[in-house]
Amino acid sequence: MSRMTCELLLRLDGSLLEGPCWDPRDERLLWVDIPNRTVYAMSWAGGNVTTVTTLEDVSAVLPLADAGEVLACRSGLTTSADPGRIQLPIESHRSWARTNDAACDPAGRLWVGTMADDASPGTGTLYRVEPDWSCHAVVGDLTISNGLGWGPDGDLMYLIDSATRALDVFDYDIATGAVDARRTLVDTSGWPGLPDGLAIDIEGAIWVAFYGGSAVRRFAPDGHLLATVEVPTENPTSCAFAGPGLDQLVITTARASDRSSGGDLYVLRPGTTGLPHRPFAG
C-alpha cells in the first residue's frame, strides 16, 4: 500500500467545499461551498476564479450538455443561468432536508441524493433525473447520501452512505438507468473518518475522501486498499480528476473542528488518470 502527499492548490478559507468537477469545455474546475451558497469556477490555465451566488445552500454543480451548469440546491435543481429559481423541486416539502452529492451517469442522467439536516437515520433518498427533467426515487432508507460514480464500463454504480461507513456497489443498466444487486464493497469502519465524496480512475479504482480522517484512500475494484493520500487538514470532503489530461486529483475540504485549517483546495499527481465527467443531458 503506497502513501502519497498533496499540496495546496487554492486557499479560500471557505466553510464546506464540495463537489469538485472538471468541465472540459472551458478547461475549468467547478465546485461549491454549501452553506455559503457559492458556486466556484476556476480557469485551469490562468487560475482565475469566478463565482455564482444562490438563494439556497448549494451542494453540487455539474455541466449541462448545451451550455451552463445545473446546480443541486437545498430544495431541488436549478441552473447557473437562473440560480434564484428552483426548476425541479426535490423534497421541497421537507424543510428539514436538503440535497447532497450529485453526479451524471454515462448516458447523461443526473443522480442526486438527499439527507436530513440532523442526519436522521433512513430519511435520505437517491433520485435519478432523466434528460427530460423527470425525477424518480430509486434508493431509499439512506442517511447521508454521498459519493456517486460509475466504473469504466458503466455497468457498475458506486454509492456511499456516510453514516453506515459503507462503500456500496450496484449492477447498473446504462440503457434504462436501473440498479440491482446492491452489496457492500468496502466497510470503511477500520479507518478514521467518514467516507464522503469519491472519484473513479481508468483502472476502475475508487478514490474516497474521508471526512474527519485527513485522507483520501484508493480502493481496488475488489475492495482492497491500494493507496492513501495524506491531506494536511481534518476534513477532506470529495475529490475529482482534473486538468486537460485528467491526470491531477483535486481534493476539496471543509473547515476543521477547531477552525485552524480547511475550506481550501489541494491537488496531487496520482500516477493515473480519471474518467471524464459526463454533462447532464437535460
TrEMBL record:
A single GO BP annotation from the record? Answer: L-ascorbic acid biosynthetic process
So where does substrate get bound?
Answer: 98, 100, 118
Q: Does the keyword Zinc apply?
A: yes
Which Pfam families does the record associate with it? Answer: SGL
This chain belongs to which protein, by name? SMP-30/gluconolactonase/LRE family protein
Q: Which residues form the active site?
A: 196 (proton donor/acceptor)
By its UniProt entry, which InterPro entries does this protein fall under?
A: 6-blade_b-propeller_TolB-like, SGL, SMP-30
* Native source species: Aeromicrobium piscarium
Cofactor, free-text remark? Binds 1 divalent metal cation per subunit.
Q: Where is the signal peptide?
A: none
Q: Which family does it belong to?
A: Belongs to the SMP-30/CGR1 family.
| SUPFAM superfamilies, sorted | Calcium-dependent phosphotriesterase
> Organism classification, top ranks?
Bacteria, Bacillati, Actinomycetota, Actinomycetes, Propionibacteriales
Name the residues that bind a divalent metal cation. 18, 146, 196
Enumerate the UniProt keywords alphabetically. Metal-binding, Zinc
Task: List cofactor names only.
Answer: Zn(2+)
The segment(s) forming the SMP-30/Gluconolactonase/LRE-like region domain are: 18-255
Q: Name one GO molecular function term.
A: gluconolactonase activity
